[in-house]
Structures are given as structure tokens and as C-alpha cells.
Design goal:
The complex is a heterodimer.
Chain A (H helix, E strand, L loop, with lengths): L2 H19 L3 H23 L2 H18 L9 H18 L1 H6 L2 E4 L10 E4 L10 H14 L3 H12 L4 H8 L3 H18 L5
Helix pairs in contact in A: 1-2, 2-3, 2-4, 3-4, 4-8, 7-9
Chain B lengths: L1 H5 L4 H13 L1 H19 L9 H10 L2 H11 L8 H40 L3 H19 L8 H6 L9 H10 L1 H11 L1 H10 L3 H10 L14 E10 L5 H6 L1 H19 L2 H18 L1 H6 L8 H14 L3 H16 L3 E6 L8 E8 L3 H11 L8 H6 L2 E9 L4
Parallel strand pairs in B: 1-4
Antiparallel strand pairs in B: 2-3, 3-4
Helix pairs in contact in B: 7-9, 7-10, 10-11, 11-15, 14-15, 15-17, 18-19
The chains are: A mainly alpha, B alpha+beta.
Chain lengths: 198, 405
């Protein structure tokens, strides 16, 4: 996405927000329709559970609805929206119920070895899945889930969503250098986790 | 390397990296992995929101945030962990408190209940008091069945205590305890064998009632229970002993009476069968002597057995006793003169049985009534201060008896 498109898009978002603040409720619907898949995808990649992602994504848009009046147009709407999304995901990841729901299985390794691979979430999908791509997607998702929270966030935002470093830096509150270093460590871990598959 | 592959490096640095990559196989492998990684990540399927996502967002927006927050707080797990040991201790403490709370009121209520009963019994004669009164009357019937009641001495008068059973519950309870032998007597009435033993001396209550109607007894219609009388007394009046002609008449009766206390004790202490045997041994000689008289005076044929017919023979003599009748008439006159109301009078034709006058006397006249009653015969005045103070009507049952030689 080039800079002109980005600017154009941000202007469109700003207009929709203004319309909403002027009382045009349908403007909010426009914003939801535009960003719902991206927000949902971030939630899913961060949380790893469809239902929880659904709930989290709804929660994000409800927050947006209630907080649009406080939006100051100093940053892009998408940055503000992703920040809300990431924070919601962090809150959910911090909750006990989320941690309890995760059943862990050991992938690729000897349980006695200390560096024998990573713990990934078992989504219950059959290993004899006919579609190689789907299986690969599942393994990658599991590997992402095994990353620490901050590394997971930067991988999702940079490698999956393709956000620029500065935007990631803004919405996460991290320095661009920290973002890059976290991203490098995350990629290395993923490489170790998916050894022999990727 | 990742800056190089993402195009984040300036041209000079990028050229340097490119030159290095031509000679370094390790960096080439790294570069290849990064390219693969990025392609896989970009190819990851985008998970899309459900079709009704917007509707559900609207629904959730319309929900009250407070309500949602409440339910979320209610059902969400705690953010901090509670140790299992602490939970167990807390549960134990709650259980102990609960048990103490449950048991404590029971302990407190017990004395309160007794006090209340006592208060109720003091204010009104309760059912319990009534039942105890009935019990005491049963005792009287058993005692009346034997001539042991004859007040031969002070000790017998003391034994036959005047019963203020209706005063309070504790007193009535204590009196019931005093009259523990009455339980034996009541049990005596329950047993058929014992009933036979009693009826050998005297017919049972219903029989006696019919007999009194047939004889000289005159029963006035009794007032309903508790019609104005709050205290009940039974006073035994023993006539003076100088009536020699009466002594002659009551010779046989008194001999039976002298024998009675021992028999009564035996009846209460021994088994019914034993008591019956003792009775039979005692009475058989008399029955043989008076066999001819029995044939003449066999007016009452309802009483069963040879023993009872022997008693009937004695009754014919006792009926002619004018001393009891005279005393009874005096008592009736005294009741009227003291402003009392005659409730009932019973002059049975059974030897050894007292003439009974029942009357309601005003509490203010109770002392003068007892004074005049004492001038005629020997009585033991029951405690009546309370009756006088409260100015209530007292129901008195006066048993008029002949002295025992």
C-alpha cells in the first residue's frame, strides 16, 4: 500500500468519524465493515481461539464506539484501532481463564531435553489432514502462539498484517529498534519451532 | 539481514550486504529462510469475522455496560489465587460458626419455655394442670377404694395432702412427684387383675355413680369446669370421736379401715395377682359369717363376686349412720350462710366412704368458713391466703368422715 493510498484511506476514516460524531450512526458501521476482518485476524493470531477472538473483536469495536468522541485526529484511525485491539488481546491473554483454556502439547522433541522444541497449542485438528496448506497454517499458528506476548504482537503486526515499523512502534509504545529486535528474536524462535517444515 | 530483505537499508549498505551474500553460504541460508518465512506469513489465511459480526456489535453496544460488567465480575475467575489450605480453614470456621448459631437458640429457649408454661399455668389452669388434677383424682379414687383414707391420725392427714395442684406448674409437678405412688395406683387401675382387686373392696367409679343414684346420695348438676373458681381445695373433716352409738354401728367398717393402710401399701408394692390373693385371704372369713345377711340385703346385684356382696351387707348398716348426714347438712347450711354456692353433694351408701359436699366459697369468706367447719369437726386448713387476697371464688370439696377407732 503506497503512501497516497494510506493518506487517502486515513482521510476517509477521519470523515467517517466526523460523520459519526455529527450523529450519523451509519458512519460507524462503515468503519466496522472496513476493519472487522483485520481486527478479527489480529485477535485470532494473538489469542489462537476463534470464539474468543470473536468476543474480543466485538469488544474492540464497542470500545471504539464509546471512545470515538475522544479521538483527536492526531494519528491515523487504524493505528488507534490497532492499539485498542492489541491492548484488548493483552488483557485477555493476561486473564486466568485464557491461560486455563490452553492445553499444551509438546511438538517436535524429546521431553527430557531442555531445548527440544516448543510447546504449542493443540487445536484438536486431525494430523492426517489432507490439505497440506491448512496443516501448515495450523502449525504456524501454533508456533506463533508459543511466542512471548510482545514477540507475538510484532510478528502479527509486521509479518502478517504488514504494518510499518513506525506504526507498530506508535501503537505498541515500543522504540522502533526494540520492535526490530523483538521481531528478529521472534523469527528465530519460529524458525526453531518449525525446523524441518519451513 | 531482515532490514536488507525488507528494503529498510540505504543503497550503500544494501550493496555491501549483497556482496557479502555472494561469498557467505550461511548468510545465504538465512536469507532464504527469511524469504520463506515472510512468504508463509503473508500466505497465512486471513481469519474473517462472522457475517453477523456487525449486528452482534450493535447488540452489545445496546447492552447496559454496568449489567455486562456485573456479570463479567460475577463469573470471571479471580485474578489472585487462594491457597487450598486457606479455603479449608475458612470453610471450617464458617461451619463451626453455623453449628454454634444453630445450637445456641435451643439452649436459650428451654428455660424460657418453662417459664412461659409456669406463667400460663398460673393465670389459667392449663391442660397439663387439668390432666394432673385428673391424675390426682384417680389417686383419690384408689385411696377411697380402701378404708385407708380414714384419718386415724395426724400422719394420715399429712399423707393425704390438700392439693393446690392448680397454682403453678412447678408446684403441680412437685406434687405429682410427691404422689408417685399414684402412678402405681393409676397403673393398678389399668390392669384388669388390679381392677378386680380394687373392685373387691369397692365398685369402680361408674358403678359407684349408679349406686349413688339408687341410694340416698343426691347429686346436684355440676357446674361447668372453671366457672369462676380459680382454686380448688379438698378438705377432710373428721367428726368428733365421742359419738359412741356411731362407733357401734361402724364397728365392722372401722375394722376394715384399720386393716386398709397395710393392704393399700401391699397393693401398690406387690404385683396385682399377689394383691388379689391377699385380699381374698382377708375377706373370706367375713364373707362366711355374713352369708345369711347377704341374701337379705342383696339389693345391689351389679357388683360382681362374693367379696363385693359382703361389702354390700356392711353398706346397709352404714346408710343408717345419722352422724355423717347431720354433719353434711351442717356443711351445706354453712356454705349457704357464708354466701357460697353448693355445687354437689354425695352421700354414698358404702361403708367407709365419706360424705362429700362440693361448694364454691367466696375467697373473702374462706377463713370464717374454715373456722366454723373446724368447730364442728377436725380439719386441716389448707393455705388460702392467696384466695383471700385475690378475692376469688374457691371450690372446696369437703369429705366428711367418721373417726377411726
Amino acid at each position: 500500500m503506497d503512501k497516497e493510498n494510506i493518506l487517502e484511506e486515513s482521510e476517509t476514516d477521519a470523515d467517517a468519524i466526523r460523520d459519526f460524531l455529527d450523529g450519523k450512526r451509519s458512519a460507524f458501521d462503515t468503519l466496522v465493515m472496513k476493519y472487522q476482518d483485520r481486527v478479527f485476524n489480529i485477535c485470532y493470531r494473538m489469542l489462537g481461539d476463534y470464539d474468543e477472538s470473536d468476543d474480543c473483536a466485538q469488544d474492540v469495536f464497542v470500545r471504539v464506539y464509546r471512545s470515538l468522541g475522544k479521538f483527536r485526529f492526531e494519528s491515523k484511525f487504524s493505528t488507534w484501532l490497532y492499539r485498542i485491539t492489541v491492548n484488548s488481546c493483552k488483557n485477555r491473554l493476561a486473564s486466568v481463564s485464557h491461560r486455563r483454556n490452553r492445553s499444551m502439547v509438546r511438538l517436535n522433541g524429546d521431553p527430557d531435553s531442555e531445548v527440544s522444541g516448543i510447546d504449542i497449542r493443540d487445536n484438536g485438528a486431525s494430523p492426517s489432514n489432507a490439505f497440506e496448506k491448512k496443516e501448515m497454517n495450523r502449525l504456524i499458528q501454533s508456533a506463533i502462539q508459543s511466542l512471548p506476548e510482545a514477540q507475538r504482537m510484532v510478528v502479527v503486526l509486521r509479518d502478517i498484517e504488514g504494518l510499518p515499523y513506525d506504526e507498530i512502534s506508535k501503537l505498541s509504545g515500543l522504540n522502533p529498534g526494540t520492535v526490530k529486535s523483538k521481531l528478529a528474536r521472534a523469527r528465530r524462535r519460529l524458525r526453531d519451532a518449525l525446523k524441518g517444515m519451513v | 539481514m531482515q532490514d536488507y530483505i525488507e528494503g529498510e537499508l540505504d543503497q550503500v549498505t544494501a550493496q555491501g550486504v549483497a556482496q557479502h551474500l555472494q561469498s557467505c553460504s550461511r548468510c545465504i541460508k538465512e536469507l532464504e529462510y527469511l524469504k520463506k518465512h515472510l512468504s508463509y506469513m503473508k500466505d497465512l489465511e486471513t481469519v474473517r469475522a462472522p457475517k453477523d459480526f456487525l449486528e452482534r456489535v450493535h447488540r452489545r453496544i445496546e447492552e447496559s455496560p454496568e449489567e455486562r460488567r456485573f456479570f463479567h465480575t460475577l463469573f470471571s475467575p479471580l485474578r489472585f489465587k487462594i491457597p487450598l489450605e486457606l479455603s479449608a480453614v475458612a470453610a471450617m470456621v464458617i461451619a463451626i460458626i453455623f453449628v454454634l448459631q444453630v445450637t445456641r437458640p435451643v439452649k436459650r429457649q428451654e428455660p424460657v419455655a418453662v417459664e412461659k408454661k409456669a406463667e400460663i399455668a398460673e393465670a389459667l389452669p392449663s391442660e397439663k394442670a387439668k390432666s394432673e388434677e385428673a391424675k390426682a383424682e384417680k389417686l383419690e379414687h384408689v385411696q377411697e377404694a380402701k378404708p385407708s383414707e380414714y384419718p386415724a391420725s395426724e400422719s394420715t392427714l399429712q399423707a393425704k395432702k390438700i392439693k393446690p395442684a392448680e397454682k403453678t406448674v412447678p408446684e403441680s409437678i412437685s406434687q405429682t412427684k410427691e404422689l408417685q405412688p399414684s402412678e402405681g395406683a393409676a397403673a393398678l387401675e389399668e390392669s384388669p387383675a388390679e381392677r378386680t382387686a380394687v373392685s373387691s373392696e369397692r365398685p369402680s367409679a361408674p358403678e359407684r355413680k349408679g349406686e349413688s343414684k339408687a341410694g340416698s346420695a343426691e347429686a346436684l348438676p355440676e357446674e361447668p369446669a372453671g366457672s369462676g373458681s380459680v382454686m380448688d381445695f379438698t378438705v377432710v373433716m373428721v367428726l368428733p370421736g365421742e359419738m359412741k352409738d356411731k362407733e357401734e354401728t361402724m364397728k365392722k367398717t372401722s375394722s376394715a379401715a384399720a386393716r386398709a393402710p397395710a393392704e393399700y401399701d401391699r397393693v401398690l408394692s406387690s404385683t396385682p395377682a399377689e394383691a388379689l390373693e391377699g385380699e381374698e385371704e382377708t375377706y373370706r372369713p367375713e364373707q362366711a359369717e355374713k352369708a345369711s345377711e347377704r341374701e337379705k340385703t342383696a339389693t345391689v346385684s351389679k357388683i360382681k363376686g362374693e367379696k363385693s356382696t359382703g361389702i354390700q351387707a356392711e353398706k346397709a348398716e352404714a346408710t343408717e349412720n345419722p352422724a355423717l348426714e347431720k354433719a353434711a347438712e351442717y356443711v351445706v347450711g354453712l356454705v349457704q350462710s357464708e354466701g357460697g354456692v353448693l355445687v354437689a353433694k354425695s352421700f354414698p351408701n358404702i361403708p367407709g366412704q365419706p360424705f362429700v359436699v362440693t361448694a364454691d366459697i367466696p375467697g373473702s369468706h374462706i377463713n370464717s368458713f374454715f373456722d366454723q367447719l373446724g368447730s364442728y369437726g377436725k380439719i386441716q386448713v389448707p393455705p388460702n391466703d392467696e384466695a383471700e387476697k385475690k378475692a376469688i371464688t374457691v371450690r372446696i370439696r369437703i369429705e366428711i368422715r367418721l373417726p377411726v377407732r
